[in-house]
UniProtKB/TrEMBL annotation:
The modification N6-(pyridoxal phosphate)lysine is found at K192. Belongs to the DegT/DnrJ/EryC1 family. Gene3D superfamilies: Aspartate Aminotransferase, domain 1, Type I PLP-dependent aspartate aminotransferase-like (Major domain). This is DegT/DnrJ/EryC1/StrS family aminotransferase. Keywords: Aminotransferase, Pyridoxal phosphate, Transferase. PANTHER family: 3-OXO-GLUCOSE-6-PHOSPHATE:GLUTAMATE AMINOTRANSFERASE, TRANSAMINASE. GO terms for molecular function: pyridoxal phosphate binding; transaminase activity. The active site is at K192.
């Protein structure tokens, strides 16, 4: 059996090696390291793929979120509602901009932000909602966009984990993750579904004025050389990363489908297991189907409901198989983000999830032998 890895970047590299090596060699020869033609081409290609008017490449997914919030002109003290169960970057940039993060609970089946909890958290100071499309599946965007419109709030999609996923609206219309709100962000961190070979990120919007503002912010607030109209940052996608992404983007749908196939096999193996809950796929389809592209499985996350999650993690370790616990501590209990407004009783789902979730190896190169090995390990241990 091939060694099981949490993500297999090397396998993907070998399939695009020639193109990547040639493009990088070309960049090295021309020395167009920053703002080279690959960056502009990648921007256009991603706009086309996503069906969005503007892609603004930047340095990483955390910057993308921060710049999105700066571009919307959010001010110190404005409240921004986001999920308690996500990677810290989401809440970090809110706090960094001296906005007030307001964490709310998530749904037990999709792990995504709970719309009823958002509604309860809205005050006169609320200015934005940040849904995180966690683990590769969109949050309930129908309800979130409706709520945002009713309360005149911005919607900033943290799409670091769901690039390529589709959301099917109630009326049947489909849109790509990250392009439904006022602005969306993504990360090209190597292990993300569309990863480069270093750091990278991008911001998406259909709003021409906002796009213009964002393009200035990523470049020191300059709209005219050496005229600094707003406070900006220095956040760029470099040419080498753009070249890698250009080689990978045409394969993104293939990558997503390989992940979905692995997820299907995992689901099948865990069918009927009393203490193992497989991830729920919503959004217009009842299972994992090939036609709707609604889940791109950045993570394949189980819930172990008989209290053996921690022991299972140890068991994985003893067997030399990687696994992950995303996320072990709710953000509302992280020292940096403690707030008197939070009440433990408001986070029943996150508080439970942190004890039950385990993410299995998930990437485009998993084979049947590896999947069988992993699923047997889980089933035997959980029932043992
Ligand atoms: C990875 C990630 C980020 C940050 O992306 P970086 O490129 O690592 O800065 C933000 N939000 C979520 C949900 C992520 O998973």
């Amino acid at each position: 059996m091939k060694k099981i890895q949490m993500v297999d970047l090397n396998g993907q590299y070998h399939a695009i090696k020639e193109q990547v090596n040639d493009s990088i060699a070309n960049i090295l020869e021309t020395s167009a390291f920053i703002n080279g033609s690959d960056v502009k081409e990648f921007q256009k290609e991603l706009e086309e793929y996503l069906g969005v008017k503007h892609v603004i490449p930047c340095g990483n997914g955390t910057d993308a979120l921060q710049i999105a919030m700066m571009g919307l002109g959010l001010k110190a003290g404005d409240e921004v509602i986001t999920a308690d169960f996500t990677f810290a970057a989401t809440v970090e940039v809110i706090a960094l901009l001296q906005l007030t993060p307001v964490l709310v609970d998530v749904e037990p089946d999709t792990f995504n932000i709970d719309v009823a909890a958002i509604e309860r958290a809205i005050t006169s100071k609320t200015k934005a909602i940040v849904p995180v499309h966690l683990f590769g599946q969109c949050a309930n965007m129908d309800a979130i966009l409706e709520l945002a419109e009713k309360h005149k709030l911005y919607v900033i999609e943290d799409n670091a984990q769901a690039i390529g996923a589709n959301h099917t609206f109630k009326d049947g219309k489909k849109q790509k993750a990250g392009t439904m709100g006022h602005v969306g962000s993504t990360s090209f961190f190597p292990s993300k579904n569309l990863g480069c070979y270093g750091d990278g990120g991008a911001i998406f919007t259909n709003d021409d004025d906002l796009a213009h503002t964002l393009r200035g912010i990523v470049n020191h607030g300059m709209y005219l050389r050496y005229h600094h109209d707003v406070v900006g940052v220095n956040s760029r996608l470099d040419s080498i990363q753009a070249a890698v992404l250009r080689a990978k983007l045409p394969k993104l749908d293939e990558y997503c489908s390989a992940r979905r196939n692995a997820a299907k096999k995992y689901n099948k193996a865990f069918e009927g297991q009393e203490h193992i809950v497989t991830p729920k796929t919503v959004n217009g389809c009842s299972g994992i189907c090939d036609t709707c592209d609604c889940h791109v499985f950045h993570q394949y996350t189980l819930k172990i409901t008989n209290g053996k999650r921690d022991a299972l993690v140890e068991h994985f370790k003893e067997n030399g198989i990687p696994c992950g616990v995303y996320y072990p501590i709710p953000l509302h209990r992280q020292k940096a983000y403690l707030d008197n407004r939070y009440n433990e009783a408001d986070f029943p789902v996150t508080n439970q999830l942190v004890k039950e979730v385990i993410s299995l190896p998930m990437h485009t190169e998993l084979d049947d032998e590896q999947i069988n090995h992993i699923t047997s390990l889980v089933i035997d241990f959980v029932n043992g």
